Amino acid sequence: MAHDHEGQRVSRRRLFAGISSIGLGTLVAACSGSDTSAVTTSTGTTVTPQATTATTGDLAALFEGAGTCRLTATTTQGPYYFDADKVRGDIREDRQGVRLRVAIKLQDSETCEPLKNAVVEIWHCDAAGLYSGAESLSKSGGGNPPGRPTGAPPSGGPGGGDGGGEDGGSMDLKPTDDQRYLRGAQVTNAEGIVEFTTIWPGWYRGRTIHIHAMVHVSNERVLTTQLMFDEKLNSVVMARAPYSAHTGRDTFNDGDSIYQDGMLMKVSEDGDGYVGAIVFSADSDKDGR
């Protein structure tokens, strides 16, 4: 995608706040590139349209077989989620790593129809295992509660299994620094698709390599899940710089507490990097189906 408003602080909450004054269709068109003029929300935020670089046809082969109309597994959001106020497609900023395009197709879990005009957020650690907004907490031994040994994995954080269960790590983080790399949100188009440009995530103790994702429909959180990668590809990427400087990886897919086969992205080479695709089936009306 072209990113005329990269770095602009536009929260997903303010996206929905602007709906009443300009209409969701117009707002989403501005975010997804189907319009050519900037619009201003009721909060005074100007959103410049983006152009789409990959068509649905380009991604069809990757989406084929990537998922079925079965409710996507919900997981803990982990300890490092917050609304990063970043509506953008390229979330790399200054982070170095292997380029990764992430394409997500969102559909309703009951009807299998595309869910358009939904907000999809993703966030993940960098090649060294650090999260923006929580760099000190996500360093080894950081953020430990009183009585926990120095150097031990933080409770509910990297090395702590991302909270370990649905209740653990479920509260939004108050950022401890002003970094926002590797975080962003996009609005699904008519086919229910969003696309991000990022880097292959790194790793930290106690967790396999993963990306967090959250879906909002009408300002309701309807899905929180995670994305994983085939271990053969993880091994190839981790052998390259800058990942190779971070040694001692201790947790792989088969030993991860959250991993499920349905979280695996379908990945192929894409120039000097990779492109991965996955289908999310979300319970948009939150009736459990």
Automatic annotation (TrEMBL):
Instruction: Recite the lineage of the species.
Output: Bacteria, Bacillati, Actinomycetota, Actinomycetes, Streptosporangiales
Q: Which Gene3D superfamilies match?
A: Aromatic compound dioxygenase
Keyword annotations: Dioxygenase, Oxidoreductase
| GO MF entries | ferric iron binding; oxidoreductase activity, acting on single donors with incorporation of molecular oxygen, incorporation of two atoms of oxygen
Q: Does the keyword Cell membrane apply?
A: no
> Which residue ranges does the record annotate as region Disordered?
135-177
Species in which this protein is naturally found: [Actinomadura] parvosata subsp. kistnae
Spell out the Gly residues composition-biased ranges. 157-168
Q: Which InterPro entries match?
A: Intradiol_dOase_core
Recorded superkingdom = Bacteria
Is Oxidoreductase found in the keyword set? yes
Sequence ranges of Pro residues compositional bias: 146-156
Indicate what this protein is called per its UniProt record. Protocatechuate dioxygenase
